[in-house]
Amino acid sequence: MSDPKPTFVPVTQPFLPPLDEFRPYLEEIWDRKWVTNNGVFHQQLEEQLCDYLGVEHLSLFSNGTLALITALQALKITGEVITTPFSFVATTHALHWNGIKPVFADIDPVSLNLDPEKIEAAITPQTTALLPVHVYANPCDVERIESIADTYGLRVIYDAAHAFGVRINDRSVLHYGDMSVLSFHGTKVFNTFEGGAIVCRDAKTKRRIDNLKNFGFVDETTVVAPGINGKMNEVQAAFGLLQLKHMDEVNAQRARIDARYRDALRNLHGIAMHDVPVHCTRNFAYFPILVTPEFPVSRDDLYNELREKHIAARRYFYPLISEFPMYRGLPSAGPHNLPVATAISRQVLCLPIFPALDDADQERVIETILSCAWRKRRAS
Ligand SMILES: *Cc1c(COP(=O)(O)O)cnc(C)c1O
């Protein structure tokens, strides 16, 4: 057979606007010769993101992980923090870097986010805060989490790395909790190559965060806290301003791909898809499916089958954070404490979704899944 080798389909790809559109921004930076430290583009991006997201106070960071670490610092969190094992490893790493003990609680099988009942059961006298994640941009049960936090006097920091632009009943999901942290990494819906932000509730807190991300400086000679260097530079901020102009287009493309997967995989025995509540706006950041035991092929076999066809699906999140060597010794890390997260992490597979994914490539992904289901069923 002389078929040309099929093109490689990545699981995700950053949206890059036409290069010509970026040049004027770079020329401005070259003219100003102000490359970082709260530059003009940095200020503009903070303002425009507040408008776009519908929030009031936002501080940009060089990446989401430093933003998470700094959010915990800004709130002076210590002791134990309850978090989810079903997330990207940076969520728990941010606790570790602050000398905080992570306490893992299990997730809800439908939302795949922290189960409020499991949160409540994990609270001890050392608990000071909750660190839930809006996994796949699907909002946590924010009302119940707020009521638990109020009852027990706990802080809430949301890892909102996936949740750019998500709203609940037309209100930004970033309004909930004491702070929310975004990531603008290249794999995320809105990207500045690397980047992130903290959304907080008042101007005073934003000032504190701004100081912390600049070594703790408040003026030329005064350092008030052991801060870090978490500043976003002007090239990143400029790229964010340009990217923001394209978000309608990006969202429309993602929505189209999401709808096509849903259509094609609906009613496929053994494949479960994630439904988002109707009162939430979505950002189509990920397309996770669950390959359940009713599917004739295991999750890993399907993953390998896709790989053989040059399609990169991702077992995201597998392994669980609680299974990594630096955390698996924690009392809360055992699989008996986390049965739902453990089962889901063995079934989940994220399919390729990104604005430039074309119909033919998406069709190859769908056909591979369908053929897997069909072929093996006949064989059994
Ligand atoms: C991407 C991500 C992070 C880390 O963000 P970076 O910008 O890559 O540092 C943290 N938490 C979650 C859930 C993420 O997906």
Mean pLDDT: 95
Question: Could you say which small molecules are bound to this protein?
Answer: pyridoxal-5'-phosphate
Using the alpha-carbon principal axes, give the shape: globular
Distance between the termini: 29 Å
The helix/strand series, from N terminus to C terminus, equals HHEHEHEHEHEEEEEHHHEEEHHEH
CATH superfamily of the largest domain: Type I PLP-dependent aspartate aminotransferase-like (Major domain)
Approximate strand percentage: 5-15%
Number of strands: 13
SSE blueprint and pairings:
Elements: H1 19-32, H2 40-53, E1 57-61, H3 64-74, E2 80-83, H4 90-96, E3 101-104, H5 116-122, E4 127-131, H6 142-152, E5 155-159, E6 167-168, E7 171-172, E8 179-183, E9 196-200, H7 203-212, H8 234-245, H9 247-265, E10 271-273, E11 280-281, E12 287-291, H10 299-308, H11 339-345, E13 348-351, H12 359-379
Parallel strand pairs: 2-3, 2-4, 4-5, 5-8
Antiparallel strand pairs: 1-9, 6-7, 6-11, 8-9, 10-12, 12-13
Helix pairs in contact: 1-8, 2-8, 3-4, 3-7, 9-12
Short recap of the structure:
The chain is α/β, with parallel strands linked by helices and 380 residues long. It folds into 2 domains: 19-106 and 113-245, Aspartate Aminotransferase, domain 2 (3-Layer(aba) Sandwich); 247-379, Aspartate Aminotransferase, domain 1 (Alpha-Beta Complex), CATH 3.90.1150.10.
